[in-house]
Design a protein that fits this description.
Chain A is mainly α. Chain A is 76% helix and 1% strand. A two-stranded antiparallel sheet of chain A has the order 1-2. Chain B starts with a strand and ends with a helix. The interface between A and B is medium-sized, with 18 and 28 residues.
C-alpha cells in the first residue's frame, strides 16, 4: 500500500510547502524560482521512469514537454478551451503519440535507442517549425484576454503555479506507485537483463511501450501549463536539446532509479543553474558545470546522491525510496 | 497417454551453420529427460527453439496439448514451461528475493506481488537460498547463481523445467546438493528436461537420454543403452566401458 510508505507523506508535505510558502509571503519572484524547480522535478521524475526504472536512455525526453506545450497552447488559445482541460488533453494526445512511436523505436536497444530519441526530437522540431496552424518557426502567443477567463493575469499566474505544483506531486507519486508495483518489478527486470526478463515471462514489448507513453503524460501536461504561463511558445524553446541533456544530469546527480533522487537532483540542479545563469561571473558557464558534474557523478558516485546515502546508511533504503 | 512435450522435425539454421536438424523426441509427465552431446552439438539452441527464444525454421513443438511453435518466451512461461540459462543471467542489482519474485509474478499463475513474494520465499527455502534472500544477486557465488536460476524458474510453478547445465562449474558437494534439488523437483510432479556434461549425474538422474551431435539426434533411450551405443561412444563418450565405470562409482 502506497499510504504506508513514508515517502508518500513526504511528497505531500513537500508539495504543500512549495505551494504555501510563496503564497504566504506573497513573493512573486520566489514563485517564479520555484516553478522552475517544480518543472525540473517533473522532467527528472518522468525521465527516471525510462532511464532509472527501465534502463532506456531517452535523450529526447523534452519532446513531450514541447509537444504538450504546443497542443495545450493551441487548445487553450486558438480553440478557447478551459486551461485544465487543454492541459489534460495535451497530456493524453502526447501519450498516445509516444505509445505509437514507442512500439517502433523501442525495438532498438542501448545506444541505438538513445540515438533514435535524438532523431525523434529533431524530426518533431522540424515538423513543428514548418507546421502552419502552430505558427511555423515564429510559434504562438497567448492573447492577453485568454488570462481573463482565469480572473486576470495576476490570478492566472498563481493558478498555473498551483497546477504545476500539483503535477509535480503527481509525478513523484506516480514514480513511487510504479516502483512498488508489479509493473515496476517487471520494468526493473527489463533494466537488469531484458532477455532474462522475457524468459521469466515479462511481456517486454508491451511494458516498454506503456512506460514510454506514461513517461510522456505529465511532462506534456506541465508543458501546456508552463508555456501558457509564459504566454508564448516557439520551436527553439519548446524543443531545447540542452534541456533534455540537463534532465539526464539532474537524474544522475540525484540518483537514478529512486523517487527522491530524481526530485532532489532536479531541484538542486535547477537552483544551481539559475544561480549560474544569473550570476555575472558565470553566465553561460552552466553547461560546463553540468558536464563536469555529470562526469564526476558517473565516475565516483554512479548511484548519485541517494546512492551515496544508501552506501553510508544502508537502512535508508527502506525509507528513502 | 499424450506426452507433455512433443518436438517433431525441428530444424534451426544460423547462416551457413545447421545448428539443429530434423530433431524429434517426446517427454512424458514426471519424466527426467537428459540431453547430452559434444560442445557445439546444438543442445542449447534446441532449448532456445523449444522455449521460443529462437524461431524454428521447420518442425512443430507441442506442449501440454498446445502448439507452441514460435510463440514468444513470455507466453511459453505462462503455459508452464520455464527454463534456466547455462550462462547465468541474474538480475544483478536486485535482491535474490526480488529475482525470484519476478519469476512468480510473471510465471504460469501471473501472481500479484504479495502472493508472489510468498511463493518466492518458499522456493528459496527449497533450493537453500533462504539465508541470502536480501542479498543482491550480484554478490552470490556461481553455485548460488545457478541455484537462483533454478529458483526463479521454479517460482513460475512450471509443468516442465528446462535445466541448461545447472551442474557446470560446481564442486562435488555443490553437485550433490543440486542433484538433490533436481530429484525433489521431479518428486513434486514437475517434468525435467536437462542438458548436462557431468555424465555420472545425468546417467543416474535421467529416465531417458537423447544424444545430439552436429545438430542431429544420434540416439535416444535408457541411459545404459545409450552409453553402450557405439555411435555415441565415438561421438561423445570416448570410452566403451563408461556405463560400467559410472555404475561402480554410484
Amino acid at each position: 500500500m502506497i499510504l504506508r510508505r513514508p515517502v508518500f507523506w513526504l511528497i505531500l508535505v513537500f508539495a504543500a510547502l512549495m505551494a504555501f510558502v510563496p503564497l504566504h509571503a506573497n513573493n512573486v519572484s520566489m514563485r517564479e524560482d520555484l516553478i522552475l524547480v517544480a518543472i525540473a522535478i517533473i522532467l527528472a521524475s518522468n525521465l527516471n521512469l525510462m532511464i532509472g526504472y527501465t534502463g532506456y536512455v531517452n535523450f529526447g525526453h523534452i519532446v513531450f514537454y514541447g509537444l504538450g506545450g504546443y497542443v495545450g497552447l493551441y487548445l487553450a488559445t486558438v480553440r478557447s478551451w478551459n486551461l485544465v482541460l487543454a492541459a489534460l488533453t495535451a497530456g493524453l494526445v502526447v501519450s498516445l503519440f509516444a505509445l505509437a512511436l514507442g512500439m517502433g523505436i523501442l525495438r532498438l536497444r542501448g545506444a541505438y535507442f538513445a540515438l533514435a530519441t535524438i532523431g525523434v526530437l529533431q524530426a518533431v522540431q522540424s515538423f513543428v517549425a514548418n507546421f502552419d496552424p502552430w505558427g511555423r518557426s515564429t510559434g504562438m502567443y497567448v492573447a492577453f484576454d485568454a488570462y481573463e477567463r482565469l480572473g486576470g493575469a495576476r490570478h492566472a499566474l498563481w493558478t498555473t503555479y498551483f497546477l504545476v505544483i500539483g503535477v509535480m506531486a503527481l509525478s513523484m507519486i506516480l514514480s513511487l506507485g510504479i516502483k512498488i508495483s508489479k509493473f515496476g518489478l517487471g520494468l526493473f527486470a527489463i533494466r537488469e537483463d531484458e532477455d532474462a526478463a522475457l524468459v521469466l515471462g515479462v511481456n517486454t514489448t508491451v511494458f516498454k511501450a506503456i512506460i514510454y507513453s506514461v513517461s510522456a503524460f505529465l511532462p506534456a501536461v506541465a508543458g501546456a501549463l508552463m508555456f501558457y504561463k509564459n504566454g508564448m511558445i516557439d520551436p527553439s524553446i519548446a524543443f531545447e536539446f540542452m534541456l533534455s541533456l540537463e534532465g539526464i544530469v539532474m537524474l544522475m546527480l540525484g540518483g537514478k532509479g529512486t523517487v527522491v533522487g530524481a526530485a532532489l537532483g532536479g531541484g538542486l540542479y535547477e537552483k544551481l543553474r539559475s544561480y549560474l545563469l544569473t550570476s555575472p561571473k558565470f553566465s553561460n558557464f552552466q553547461l560546463v558545470i553540468a558536464g563536469g558534474l555529470l562526469l564526476l557523478v558517473v565516475l565516483f558516485a554512479p548511484g548519485g546522491l541517494i546512492g551515496w546515502l544508501y552506501r553510508l546508511v544502508p537502512r535508508a533504503r527502506k525509507v528513502i525510496e | 497417454m499424450t506426452p507433455l512435450l512433443e518436438v517433431s522435425g525441428v530444424s534451426k539454421r544460423f547462416g551457413g551453420l545447421q545448428a539443429v536438424s530434423d530433431v524429434s523426441f517426446s517427454l512424458g509427465e514426471r519424466e527426467i529427460l537428459g540431453l547430452i552431446g559434444p560442445n557445439g552439438a546444438g543442445k542449447t539452441t534446441l532449448f532456445n527453439v523449444v522455449n521460443g527464444v529462437y524461431k524454428a525454421d521447420k518442425g512443430t513443438i507441442k506442449f501440454a496439448g498446445e502448439d507452441i511453435t514460435n510463440r514468444p518466451p513470455n507466453e511459453v512461461v505462462h503455459l508452464g514451461l520455464a527454463r534456466t540459462h547455462q550462462i547465468v543471467k541474474p538480475l544483478q542489482d536486485m535482491t535474490v528475493l526480488e529475482n525470484v519474485t519476478v519469476g512468480a509474478c510473471f510465471g504460469r499463475e501471473y501472481l500479484a506481488l504479495q502472493p508472489a513474494r510468498k511463493v518466492a520465499l518458499e522456493v528459496l527455502e527449497r533450493v537453500g537460498l533462504a539465508k541470502s534472500a536480501e542479498m543482491s544477486a550480484r554478490s552470490l557465488t556461481i553455485a548460488g547463481k545457478k541455484r537462483l536460476e533454478v529458483a526463479r524458474a521454479l517460482a513460475a510453478h512450471p509443468k516442465l523445467l528446462l535445466l541448461d547445465e545447472v551442474l557446470a562449474g560446481l564442486n562435488p558437494t555443490e553437485i550433490t546438493y543440486m542433484i538433490g534439488i533436481v530429484r525433489d523437483i521431479r518428486d513434486s510432479g514437475i517434468s525435467v528436461f536437462m542438458i548436462e556434461h557431468v555424465m555420472q549425474a545425468i546417467m543416474s538422474l535421467s529416465d531417458r537420454l537423447v544424444v545430439l551431435s552436429f545438430g542431429q539426434k544420434l540416439a535416444e533411450g535408457h541411459p545404459e543403452e545409450v552409453a553402450r551405443d557405439p555411435q555415441v561412444i565415438e561421438a561423445y563418450l570416448g570410452d566403451p566401458d563408461i556405463a560400467e565405470k559410472l555404475k561402480e562409482n554410484d
